[in-house]
Specification:
The protein has 13 helices and 14 strands. The chain is α/β, with parallel strands linked by helices and about 375 residues long. The mean pLDDT is about 100. The chain has helices spanning about 10-15, 20-30, 40-50, 65-75, 90-100, 115-120, 145-155, 205-215, 235-245, 250-265, 295-305, 335-340, 355-365; strands at about 55-60, 80-85, 100-105, 130, 155-160, 170, 170-175, 180-185, 200, 220, 225, 275, 290, 345. The chain has a seven-stranded mixed β-sheet with strand order 1-9-8-5-4-2-3, with helices on both faces. Bound molecules: pyridoxal-5'-phosphate. Pyridoxal-5'-phosphate (PLP) binds near residues 62 and 186.
Length: about 375
């Protein structure tokens, strides 16, 4: 790529004008040794739970760990099957494998790129212990009916909301509908820590206590290890960064939505399609996907103009070498393959200027000679 004209991330912009205030606080934390499960972590957990409208949030080391801990806490493991989306990010499936369970994949809808709920239900077996729908690219799913369906069968509904902080659909918020919900604050996400971080959200108090034990070396209190857990605590410094940014999140999501609306409007006469034919007001556009059969040449065209477009994800789960042992092969999940071959992500940042938005729009339009 030539020199970047439209970047994918701008971390400086996320800290605002008064960033020195945060830096001073972090400086003091460093000097005082306020690193591990301090009040800062408690406060972030409370604020994040309140933001979502959930009883509990538990800060952990990453979104991947949030998924692993959720599966451990619900007792999902060897011999169990867990159903998830064939076009998700690697981590959803790796977490299932990590606890010894078997991932079962569902091809997405071609319309909105989300898991096909009817196909999911058709894959249930006596071994199914959990399902993990993923609010992919920032588009929330309404999981009310699926939750009842799971409750009737004693199946855990675990949401992967790693791309959907604040996303809503018909009055429901991503990360509040499952028995347990998992978030990532990886620097690429809509709410970004300064490194790895994640959270689990839920309403069940007993399960939340179990999760607190599991994230801290299985300790109920110091030196009393009652379970085989991970060491996966949200760092206090990351909590400070996240607390600093959380008040901006809603405005950022709104801004992403406005940019997405502009992209859709300005590209509607181009031979490209988008995630869902309707504009979804609850979508938080973690990624803005454009679908075209000329994906690779469009990507090259944009990158040659300094537009940091990218592909999420070029190789679907079932064709990743890590999952070879499951015997999946090309053709098994045709829609996931089509999306992997035909989608690219246009840069979308809350702080994008008019000039940058115009540059991206022109980039696509000139590719098609418009
Ligand atoms: C980012 C992401 C994860 C993993 O989160 P990390 O914090 O990077 O471990 C899991 N699932 C999805 C859908 C993600 O986008």
């Amino acid at each position: 790529m030539k020199q970047t004209v439209v970047a994918r991330y701008n971390y400086r912009a996320q800290f605002g004008e008064a960033f020195q205030e945060l830096f001073e606080k972090i400086g003091n934390m460093l000097l005082e040794g306020d690193y591990v499960l301090t009040a800062e972590v408690d406060q972030f957990e409370e604020e994040y739970a309140t933001f979502l409208g959930r009883k509990f949030a538990i800060g952990v080391n990453s979104g991947t760990d949030a998924l692993i801990l959720s599966l451990l806490a619900t007792g999902v493991g060897r011999g169990d099957e867990v159903i998830t989306a064939a076009n998700t990010f690697y981590a959803t499936v790796a977490a299932i494998c990590f606890v010894g369970a078997t991932p079962v994949l569902v091809d997405p809808n071609e319309s909105d790129y989300l898991i096909n709920i009817d196909a999911l239900k058709a894959l249930v077996s006596p071994r199914t212990r959990a399902v993990i729908p993923v609010h992919l690219f920032g588009k929330a799913m309404d999981l009310q009916a699926l939750r009842s369906w799971c409750d009737e069968r004693g199946i855990w509904l675990i949401e992967d909301a790693a791309q959907a902080h604040g996303a809503t659909i018909s009055g429901k918020t991503a990360g509040t509908q499952g028995h347990i919900s998992c978030f990532s604050f990886h620097p690429s996400k809509n709410l970004a820590a300064a490194g790895d971080a994640g959270a689990i959200t839920l309403d069940d108090e007993k399960l939340s206590q179990r999760l607190r034990i599991l994230r801290m070396l299985g300790q109920e209190r110091q030196n009393e290890h009652v379970a085989i857990g991970l060491n996966s605590k949200l760092d206090a410094i990351q909590a400070a960064v996240l607390r600093w940014k959380l008040p901006y999140l809603e405005a950022w999501n709104k801004s992403r939505k406005n940019i997405a609306y502009r992209y859709r409007l300005c590209l509607q006469d181009m031979p490209v399609t988008f995630q869902d034919s309707e504009f979804d007001k609850g979508h938080v556009y973690h990624l803005f996907q454009v679908r075209t059969s000329q994906r690779d040449s469009l990507l090259n065209h944009l990158q040659a103009r300094g537009i940091d477009a990218t592909i999420r994800y070029p190789t679907p789960i079932h064709l990743q070498p890590a999952f070879q042992s499951f015997g999946w092969k090309k053709g098994d999940y045709p829609t996931a393959e089509i999306l992997a071959n035909e989608c690219l992500c246009l840069p979308i940042r809350p702080d994008m200027t008019e000039e940058e938005i115009g540059c991206v729009v022109n980039g696509v339009r000139t590719f098609y000679g418009a």
